[in-house]
Amino acid sequence: MNYRVPQPVPQVILDDVRGAQKMLSGVSRVTAMEGSRHLSALTGSPVHLKCENLQRTGSFKLRGAYVRIAGLRPEQRAAGVVAASAGNHAQGVALASSLLGVRSTVFMPVGAPLPKVAATQEYGADVRLHGQVVDETFLAAQEYADRTGAVFIHPFDHRDIIAGQGTVGLEILEQCPEVRTILVGIGGGGLAAGVAVAVKALRPDVRVIGVQAAGAAAYPPSLRAGHPISIDDPNTMADGIKVGRPGDIPFDIIAELVDDVRTVSEDALSSALLLCLERAKLVVEPAGCSTVAALLSEPELYGGGPVVAVLSGGNVDPLLLQRILRHGMAAAGRYLSLRLRVTDRPGALAGLLAVLSVVDANVLDVSHVRTDPRLGLTEVEVELQLETKGPEHCAEVARSLHGAGYKVMS
Question: Which of 109, 178, 241, 327 could be bridged to 270 by S-S, CB 3.0 to 4.6 A?
């Protein structure tokens, strides 16, 4: 769906993207395109995964950062560059600057994951931790730019950034010329805008669909309003697309060229991350697998031809990954929590566990409650955390317990 009358002079054009592609030759990788049998069966169309999680620095961000910094005048390069980011843009700017011999300073939130801070430093940036949220970090970086003359490298709201990210679209058309639909995650909009510019110029018949996390979806209301608007307190595990306001430049492009913007839930994001890990053997961050979440959530929308889902990044903190995997397994019916009451006598718990053993439910944790005033004198409440094989297995466990005379409370 087009939200605006097409502009007579686009702000970023195909020649910009092609120029960026030449500039990035030998710098960024032409990332792999992997097929997914599971997603193909789900949608009824061939599904391919564009693996930008395997790009240098672990995300597509190097593309735009390199093009932006390479385009600076000599006196701008001499002044250095500064950026603000919680992770992916930070690493892209750090590596691009090092490759081009430009001094870089990167502001990151105080709570940024240590692996991302360490990687940014190893790529050559002077990292400064400031602020509890990215908005505060942005202000600090902009103040530093004003004070020192360093060039502020915006993560998405610049023509060169968009042109660099658009090279992903050129690669998709080269690797999968029969593509009918491209799914791409949207935060500020740089990647989606760049992909749309490249793809729509060469293949206007290809649908370009943007995907946002429901808890940080600034684009749908902005598109309805006809201009970028801010949302209060964006909240999602997908920090790579956790942006409260669309960028001005990408917004105009997306409003003109992107066919639709869909939103996905946190459950869908965690399930998508789990699927990428188990089925595709790919480590993908929540923002990076938002496109897969869209396929899982509404597979019926993506029939009628080959689909390419862009996996935009793979930089996920191991501690966060652990929590997300638990969440994903619960969303997929792979964990089951139960409370039930049994007689408080020797062997009662063993009898309960024997029933669970017969149906092959693995007990992860078990606890007893004897002091609840709602319990009878001879009763004990048992709370169980079980590992199961999916929703059907969960139902089988519940039936077996009921058949054995146990009353499941939750």
Answer: 327
Nearest to 138 by CA among 247, 285, 251: 247
In three-state secondary structure terms, 337 is strand
The average pLDDT across 160-178 equals: 98
- Hey, what are 381's tokens? 């409440």
Local structure of residue 243 (DSSP, 8 states): -
**Structure tokens belonging to residue 270:** 């965690």
SS3 call for 204: coil
Q: Nearest 10 degrees: CA dihedral of 302, 21, 283, 315?
A: -120
Buried b (16+ CB within 10 A) or exposed e, 44-58: ebbbbbbbbbbbbbb
Asked if 198 and 173 count as a contact pair (C-beta separation under 8 A), the reply is: yes
The angle that helices 88-100 and 114-122 make with each other, rounded to 10 degrees, is 10
Beginning with the edge strand found earlier in the chain, give each strand of the sheet holding 335-343 in spatial order.
335-343, 379-387, 362-369
Distance CA 59, CA 73 (A): 26
pTM: 0.84
pLDDT tier, 32 (very low <50, low <70, confident <90, very high otherwise): very high
Report the DSSP pairing between strands 47-51 and 33-35: antiparallel
Q: How far is CA 20 from the centre of its chain?
A: 24
The closest alpha carbon to 256, from 308, 199, 172, belongs to: 199
Q: How far apart are CA 383 and CA 45, in angstroms?
A: 43
E strand map for 297-355: 307-311, 335-343
Examine the pLDDT at 340 and tell me if it is beyond 50.
yes
Looking at the DSSP bridge assignments, the partners of residue 261 are 210
Give me the percent of the chain exceeding a pLDDT of 70.
Answer: 95
Output DSSP code: residue 6. P
CA pair distance 86, 30, nearest whole angstrom: 25
Annotated active-site positions, please?
61, 312
Tokens of 368: 């007893």
Question: Which residue bears the tokens 């908005």?
Answer: 135
Task: Give the three-class secondary structure for 343.
Answer: strand
Q: Measured in whole angstroms, how far is the alpha carbon of residue 297 from the centre of its chain?
A: 15
Find out whether 172 and 60 touch, Cβ atoms under 8 Å.
no
**Cα(315)–Cα(286) distance, integer angstroms:** 9
